[in-house]
Amino acid sequence: MSEKRVSVTGLIREYARRQPQKTALVIHDRAVSYGEFYGRISTAAAFLSSRGVKEGTHVLTVACPELEYIVCEYAILGLGAVNIPSENRIPAGRLAEIADAVDAELVLSPEKPDCGVLWIPYSGVEMDPAEDDSWEPAGITDACSEIIFTTGTTGKSKGVMLSSHCLETYLAAINPTFRLENDSVFLVTTPLNHVGGLHRIHQCMSVGCTAVLLDGIKNLKAFFRSIEEYGVTHTYLPPASVKLLLTLAKKELAALDGKLQFIYTASAPFPTADIETLMQLLPHTRLHQGYGSSETGSICNCQYNAPGETINSLGKPYDCVEVVLHDENGNVITEPNTEGFIRSRSSMNMLGYYKEPALTADVLRDGFIYSHDLMFFDEQGELHFAGRGDDVVNIRGFKVAPTEIEDAAQRFDAVADCACVPYDDPAVGKALKLYVVMRKGCPFRIEEIADFLSEKLEAYKIPRQILCIPEIPRTFNGKVDRRKLQHIG
Q1: Chosen CATH of 391-485 out of 2.60.40.290, 1.20.1250.20, 3.60.21.10, 3.30.300.30
Q2: Which of 20, 166, 212, 376 could make an SS bond with 35 (beta carbons 3.0 to 4.6 A apart)?
Q3: pLDDT confidence tier of residue 115, bands split at 50, 70 and 90
């Protein structure tokens, strides 16, 4: 009989025995030790079990950055049940809709949803620390343990089914490049209903280090105070968060050079101008850019400020990931610097989309996850992002990636943010429209922006329309919400 592999909840139990006084979590300036944390998880697991939660039970949770949610999450996973996190502050009506869509058997949330599913508020879950640690959590399996919903910026939001085995492979691949150690302190600021935030907590618990939770970074004073007060060594900043810091707190960010050991950026295209600025401000901090998705886990990452690296490199795929590039006809591409659609295969790959067999069959074939992302390998075998295939536009016979226009426009000093989308022009057919957000105090002059772009881009790539708007609609992780953008102007 093979030995049972230890899940993240099981690892928390081990650290609670080994280092009971060490801080596991800091939430709202309250430090929670590993001993207390596992004691609460154990009590919550017993309570939930008495309410019918067992292996395979679907539990819908509101992923608020509170101790009660984190405790319940690991209790659910430890029981072998399925955690289905929904966004914080979700309207009760929407929560009821999701409960029906995911066949929830229990809802844990601050407010009661209007549905027939058993509901327990977090305040009603018993979680006083247990006096012993005799409860043994479920081990690692190939069964579904999490259903994570995608952001759905270009289409329907889908429930990505992940197993504890997927997570085990993910942690084994990504932790060494993060260099997370027992004394590391990770500041987590992103929503806990998406892998960007949720899996950062899993990373910390898997190595026995400390996770500091903040509800976003809009409160910049709290962000910088947390880093100083708790000795934060690592953090994850989506491109939108980097943009905010570079716009409003460049001096404060520069003061963290060397103190902050590691910054990881992923989940959306990272503008080259922002990469260059971050490198100038933090030359002694390891700056990594990663690539992956909820469906694939992490495929690769690269320290782009390491000597000899190119700033746009995403690094070589992990040893556990097989990556293939192919053209529109499915032909495999082997030549360096030749763009193709990416497909990847590893045990990080999702099990499928929940109750979406047709969508699953379209994306998951022969063990590979097929993506619309366009990539290319350079001569060193490192991946580079070239754009979204479903965003690429045919302009007068030329294929144009809107991200290329956005990257050029970001270099215009007066432009704070931008996004490019196609539209149907009655005179020329498909054309490009550029939305820009101007820096405070900078006038919007179309001619100046167009002249600047004409120095950087071929003539057919110059947007036919350039519009100024107050804000680019984006998701929490910095992806342009192109569906909303299409309805502006």
Answers
A1: 3.30.300.30
A2: 20
A3: confident
